[in-house]
Design goal:
Blueprint lengths: L1 E3 L2 H10 L5 E6 L5 H13 L2 E6 L9 H6 L4 H10 L4 E3 L3 H4 L18 H4 L3 H16 L3 E5 L3 H13 L5 E5 L19 H7 L1 H6 L5 H10 L3 E8 L2 E8 L2 E8 L1
Bound molecules: pantoate (PAF).
Amino acid sequence: MNIVTDIGVWQALRLQLHGQSIGFVPTMGNLHQGHISLCERARFENDVVVVSIFVNPTQFNQASDFEKYPRSIEQDRMLLEKSQVDHLLLFTAEHLYPDDYHIQVIETSLSQFFEGEFRLGHFTGMLTIVLKLLNLVSPQRAYFGEKDYQQLLLIKEMVTALFLPINIVACETVRAEDQLALSSRNSRLTKQQRQKAALLPKLLQSSLSIEEIKQQLIDAEFKVDYVDEKWGRRLAAVWLGEVRLIDNVKI
Ligand code: PAF
């Protein structure tokens, strides 16, 4: 696997890949089987697979969440090698924000509720970095998990609105045996919290009403940001201690 840390070097290399299909998996690292399944699908559907790891500061609405976001670059590198990824992009904030974040991608509708309401500025930061990365990689296909469902819809909307010739491929959420959606943040849960966390997918998949689900979560000492239904899905964001979990299931 080729590791690229310089944007100029990558841009020169990208020109040489002309004529080959490129599958791109943007990540913030601390990779798990959910990310690996995206890489495997990209491997199957494209000539070249590119992965980026960048913990994007502009999409964190709390400095402490950014600081505590798990980072495990050596382990990530080994996992990506095993998944036969061709190029790993490791750019810094200085590289990716030469404008000092003065240029931003703002969406004014879909981004205003659920995650957008509870994480102010999150979607602006996320859309801005995704647009930068899509422009740099210029892939035929880019792969995103359905766990971040609102993010996925926003990226699709941006790609359509800005006429980017990129196919956004939605991939099903990968779950642990107890149905908890895999997430980099799960590694921050204590053993006890991790056991309790499985209640979230269990309740979302149940036939209980939204109000009943909320009540059961509160009774189990989750802090609930929202539980709601939209887009034929049940979506939720909750806290267990200092760790925020999101999930959604098809109704
Ligand atoms: O889903 C993520 O990991 C991030 O939001 C993304 C898409 C890599 C942008 O930083």
